Please model this.
Amino acid sequence: MNATSSPELKEIEPEVRKGIDECVDRWKDKEGNLIMILHEIQNQHGYVPREASLLLAEKTGVPMARIYEVITFYHYFRLVPQGKHNVTVCNGTACYLKGAGRLLNAFERKLKIKDGETSNDRLFHLETVRCIGCCGMSPALVIDKNTLGKMVPENIEKIVDDILKTEQTNEN
Amino acid sequence: MKTKSFEETLALLKKGAESKPGSPQRIRVGLDSGGIAAGAESLIDVLRSACDEAGLNIPVERTGSYGYAFIDPLVEVCADNKPATLYGQVDEQLAARIVKDHLQENRLLEDHIVASRSRATSCYGPPEAILVLDTSQEDGDKTRFFQSSIVDELRSRGWEGKVQVVRALDMGLYDKGMVMQLLPSRVTYTHVLSRDIARIVEDSIGNGKVVKDLLCEEPDRQVRIVLRNCGLIDPESIEDAIRAGAYEGLVRAVTDGNPDDVIATMKTSGLRGRGGAGFPTGLKWELTRKPQADVKYVICNADEGDPGAFMDRSILEGDPHAVLEGLIIAGYAVGANKGYFYIRAEYPLAVKRIELALTEAREKGLLGKNILGSGWDFDAEIRLGAGAFVCGEETALIASIEGKRGSPEPRPPYPSVEGLWKKPTCINNVETLAAVPWILAKGGEAYARYGTEKSNGTKVFAVTGKVRNPQLVEVPMGTTVQDIIFEICGGAQDEIPIKGVQTGGPSGGIIPERLLDTPVTYENLLELGSIMGSGGMLVMNESDCMVDVSAFYLQFCVDESCGKCAPCRIGGYQMLQLLTKIGKGRGRTEDLTQIHRICKSMQTASLCGLGQTAPNPVLSTLKYFEEEYKGYIEGGPAYSRKRKKGLEEGKNLKALA
Model:
């Protein structure tokens, strides 16, 4: 799965529509609300689905081009869903100096995906960010919202294996 | 309607906070992002259930970060009206032992105590404990040896049950030999030798006298103004904040004068923008106050995008009311009725705590209509950033709040004339705003007493990288980089010689080791080719390649360039190509001339600060470490491969050690 191709356009599901309706209603009287609405959509779905943007354009009257201009300008917004487990390697300066690159390499080798990609089975998504503000415990990484500090590449194998093990137990 | 006096209004505010009195006995856990990442959350449950089991009715509360990032998670124990004891690197097992040993059996725990930095010079009260730690970075168990020597000495006098001797985790003093601190007095001795033990025990324990020649009379180098409440109050309780003095500055501002007085106080204080550029805050407020307009705005810039800096996050998470109070005062001074917090979406905890602070302040009438009976209305709300470094630039930030892509606009008109939705707008950084309430409460002169002639007050630095104790530091302006790195943060990590210290992030430069005795002021750093920036201080050592580092920073600026103006968009990219080429050993001497030319055009022709300052890391490494660039150029690809491998191996060795 290539990280840049967007998924097929789907029919808007009723709950998606409802979620967007609510969110637009909440923000409609406030000026400059587009970014805040997009934040809410991404919080609900983990990314901003194209159908959601279309609906948003329809409801707010903001042209689709402007919505996409904003989404693609800001790093935080994504147009494709992430994996089930998301690995974020901090590449802020402190982490960079203390070997964030080697952590990233270890993940790339173990998960067989590159920075910014999602694995074929959509189990893992790997990305780097510029500073999560935990420089005191660099190098740091975030896995599924848990921040882990003072990592060395030797830790990576076990971290991934543990997740895989839990996945297998859940399947059985 | 006559407004109430300062005293009346303050008394009323404080009365509201007393309904929930703070307990003199309590346990506090540092729950900031750093602490949570180190596992602080689970400690709360462990501590609570251990207290319940022991039948102790002691509240377990949360607090922000005290700044000691290197020994997270932190637990502070306050019992029996004794000075608080701070424990670092606490795990669940230790948390349970804190309740059992410390609270139930009144025994301090070994190897985890962080000694107080406010050291006394005279003994008071009977000594109850002695902290001991070997601060020379030597191997071996000198601390243990000393501990047993002291215990032996005490035993020979029959005092061993009276005074506990405990190994500390950190003393806040480095390379000062054996250090001892007496508790509760906090009298501290440095460079203690075995032969001194007898007279210390005789004089200080027996007679309550100080051993003058060993006494550490060094005052605490840090001055906590911005961080005054961080790690000391519950950031999710407005009552706790008010008890600690929050909103006193606001009460003073609205009851004791008018907006012009507030601006005058700010001017006296000499506070300059702590976001990096150092524009005088009082002047900025005055410029925003002047224009006639029906609507004005104040904005708190909490989009801390500088990689390697976490001051703003710690302040927002540790003392959100200080920042909010600062914003309200700014609103009052410039005549705005609406404020915005522009916070990074990557800081969810900071967002949550500011949100809570806003709700609590509204309930207390500190936001909303007729604030504190002044007849003035003000409210504030949060807007989230979405990961664009350029949005730290004023005009780009405004565009982002307006819901657009964050492209900077040419200035003038400045935001103070035409800002958010074309209305006069005042934008201040988190740290600036957090200093404001203190200045209003204590007066501009009190603040101006700290610092140097042109750079007043204190500055918070996030010291990280190859340093022994990465942490937050707040020092008066004019403190040398040397003192910050060596005296406060313990010097180099793993004793690998420091090569330089980077300040100001991707917009700043590197101060080489030989210039570390430079006092930190806006002017001095500029002269060295760096900038104050938001306050990140990254320590780099001999294993860091300066060509790589400058490419790293430049890559950051290339990624973050908004693409609007050509010098930044094209210049940055082309320069990065050259740097990469040099790093691979394929560069030529002419490339360096070319790099200088690109730097010059980016500095002069870029639209906003991002492009204008992006060449700084490259220029300053070229200035101080040109031989490294030349090494790659002269050595060719073979040299490059060999050097990269050497640096990598150096890192690997350390990872194994």
